[in-house]
Amino acid sequence: MVQVAVVILNWNGENFLRQFLPVLLQHTDDTLAQIVVADNHSTDGSIDLLKKDFPSVNVILLDQNYGFAGGYNMALKQIEAKYYVLLNSDVEVSSNWLEPMYRHLELNMNVVACQPKILSFRAKNLFEHAGAAGGFIDYLGYPFCRGRVFDSLEEDQGQYDEIVRIFWASGACLFIRADIFHQVGGFDDTFFAHMEEIDLCWRLNARGYQLDCVTQSVVYHVGGGTLNTESPQKTYLNFRNNLLMLYKNLPQAVLEKILFKRRVLDYIAAFQLFVTGKPKNALSVLQARRDFKRIVGDYDSKRNDNILFATCTHCNEMLDKSILFEYYLHKKKYFKDIMCPKKQ
Questions:
Q1: What's the confidence (pLDDT) of residue 228?
Q2: Has this prediction a pTM greater than 0.85?
Q3: CB within 8 A of 300, min separation 6: which ones?
Q4: Do 112 and 212 form a contact (C-beta atoms < 8 A)?
């Protein structure tokens, strides 16, 4: 059994594989880690490229596109390793990117998952949207990061270089103990894509596990490689899955109150999208709400399991105020002005 399996879930990412796999191979110690590409039934030249140019890379072929959540669940069942690193195909790693995270988990048995500092590939002095220097969430379910609040990206000036405890680690580069991943049920594959890593990390937090951002490790993320930020499908998945995540994980005492507040805010979001010239995205929000109402009962057993195994209901890495109010009303654009996470 290898110590670390670096697993790239690929779907029609031939160009990303050609661009970023050589860098990954160059900067990954093959005595420590094995590189695996799990292919979600690509229809481009990904497999031919891997066979021809990267014969040392292990390949797992899936029989259809199972999405991010289902694809990783199926692939990771076939890989024996102490740790998994779930790495997006559109990520460029840096030298010594892996060892700091590996050492951190080896030395801290209470930490079950972590992520590196994630900077933008296109502007390497800026934090990247999907993870930045560690993920947090407010009590209404809105995620934000050290270095990124909504669309405000900070320049990396070393202000977030401390290792801190976080609420969620980015699926763009998620380092996690393999046994714990399977023990808590992995990703919810009904999510298909988006929010699945936050849902997983919520379960980890609720069961008393710790997640950290190890900023001595640095990677650069292109972002939007599968669905760009303007995609109505991405809007739909983000809103639907966020509501399902809240339902699955919130304590009963606050569930109805928070879902009511979210209903109001979601309709405001749909209106804002419509008046700013994004009618398809506005309709996606409304469709997400309709589908949530239709299927929410199917998640009762998952909710019951989460509540049953939860050992804590309060997490310091969850903001007890609304990030919307802090950002839009109080004009707090930077993470440091909103909360102070616990240093490790």
A1: 55
A2: yes
A3: none
A4: no
